[in-house]
Backbone:
């Protein structure tokens, strides 16, 4: 794998912004480490396996989430990459624009959803098997929810990606106004949620917050952050706003949990938008130094390697965590699980446990990473009708959202699985003209990554 990545790295054109790829990899890896830290399991004095949420135990750990909740950086990178892809596609298609959006969207969705099918199907099979073996359904539900909750991010990212042509036109006509327009919408949504007590409206912030951040990717590509002073000033202003509305304001400091009664991330709030804007100022202020750093062939090869399997790592990292923890408890009696999350002993042992999770993840990468590099043709090269493409995206997003929110485990069915939840992404893929089984195709060159 390293030799192939080295070959691709050496083929990278000099015009490519390597900082984009580096940020994509680092942001996902930061989220993974954050998940492994926050989801603390331990064995109590009675020998029972307990879930000890680090954020509920250690108040100071809430500040750590400002460094580990970096999904906004991934959406920034997504905005940059989606605009590059969309403008290149439309330029090649001119003057024949018929079906361009449908084909482009199907291609982007296929690249994102392909690695997701295996993890859904494997956990559906596990849920069936564990149910038939008589394990308590509540434990099966907890395991499937813990392993599959990361897919919520894909549902939101696919929706935001589908808006790319509209977002691109807004940027061309309004510039910074196309970013600013989403800030009052996020503020209004929070007011309707927390002051007017309007139910369900807070879920619209999945769009307002992440569309704003996605739009900043357009600003980045347009060179709006090129002047050295600007990203540092942006960082300082948004950091001040973030501290004001959290440490001295209404919103919780924590960005990934709900210790004060509501979450800043599920659904997102104005505080998460402020955190994202702060992070963006910082990473773009470091861009020039980062691009010089990535001239190192070894570091750039590492970046290429990570980007070639980053979704596999993201989708399977909590499966590795669940299997390690349950395997230890069932086979070894909970060896090494005595320290309570947040204690000194617990923190000292974290590097060891993270190393164990990484080792457990290696076989999954070896088996499933090929799904990030194997794509079959969409309907044999024929364009699907627009309505089918739209319905397909909606079905995929609904299925992924239900997987994260409801879980695929059923409390009362014979099989123990909510099959409609598992089926929705598969139906959506079929509507868009592709499915979970792909013909291997030659791996793309470095200039095609992302």
Residues:
């Amino acid at each position: 794998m390293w030799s192939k990545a080295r070959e691709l790295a050496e083929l990278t054109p000099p015009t490519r912004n390597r900082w984009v790829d580096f940020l994509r990899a680092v942001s996902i890896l930061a989220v993974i480490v954050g998940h492994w830290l926050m989801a603390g399991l331990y064995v109590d004095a009675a020998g029972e396996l307990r879930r000890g949420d680090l954020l509920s135990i250690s108040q100071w750990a809430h500040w750590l989430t400002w460094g580990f909740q970096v999904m906004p950086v991934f959406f920034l990178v997504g905005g940059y990459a989606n605009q590059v892809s969309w403008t290149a596609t439309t330029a090649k298609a001119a003057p024949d624009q018929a079906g361009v959006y449908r084909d482009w969207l199907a291609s982007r969705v296929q690249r994102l959803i392909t690695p997701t099918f295996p993890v859904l199907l494997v956990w559906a099979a596990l849920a069936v098997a564990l149910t038939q073996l008589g394990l308590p359904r509540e434990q099966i539900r907890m395991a499937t929810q813990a392993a599959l909750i990361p897919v919520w991010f894909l549902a939101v990212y696919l929706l935001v990606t589908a808006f790319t042509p509209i977002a691109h036109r807004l940027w061309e006509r309004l510039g910074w106004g196309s970013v600013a327009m989403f800030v009052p919408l996020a503020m209004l949504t929070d007011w309707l949620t927390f002051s007017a007590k309007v139910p369900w409206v807070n879920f619209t912030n999945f769009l307002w917050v992440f569309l704003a951040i996605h739009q900043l990717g357009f600003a980045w590509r347009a060179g709006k952050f090129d002047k050295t002073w600007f990203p540092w000033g942006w960082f300082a202003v948004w950091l001040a706003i973030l501290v004001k509305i959290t440490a001295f304001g209404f919103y919780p400091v924590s960005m990934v949990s709900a210790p004060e009664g509501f979450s800043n991330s599920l659904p997102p709030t104005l505080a998460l938008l402020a955190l994202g804007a702060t992070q963006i100022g910082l990473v773009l202020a470091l861009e020039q130094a980062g691009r010089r750093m990535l001239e190192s062939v070894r570091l750039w090869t590492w970046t290429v390697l990570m980007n070639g399997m980053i979704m596999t790592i993201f989708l399977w990292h909590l499966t590795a965590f669940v299997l390690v923890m349950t395997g230890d408890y069932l086979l070894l009696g909970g060896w090494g699980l005595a320290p309570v999350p947040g204690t000194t002993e617990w923190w000292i042992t974290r590097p060891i446990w993270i190393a164990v999770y990484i080792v457990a993840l290696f076989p999954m990468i070896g088996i499933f990473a090929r799904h990030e590099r194997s794509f079959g043709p969409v309907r044999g090269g024929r364009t699907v009708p627009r309505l089918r493409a739209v319905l397909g995206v909606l079905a995929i997003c609904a299925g992924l959202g239900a997987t994260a929110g409801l879980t695929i485990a059923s409390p009362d069915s014979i099989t123990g699985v909510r099959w409609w939840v598992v089926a929705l992404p598969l139906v959506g893929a079929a509507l868009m003209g592709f499915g979970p089984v792909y013909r291997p195709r030659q791996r793309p060159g470095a200039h095609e990554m992302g």
Observations:
- Residues 374-381, 437-450 have pLDDT under 50 and may be disordered.
- The radius of gyration is 22 Å.
- The longest strand covers residues 39-43.
- Strands lie at 39-43, 49-53.
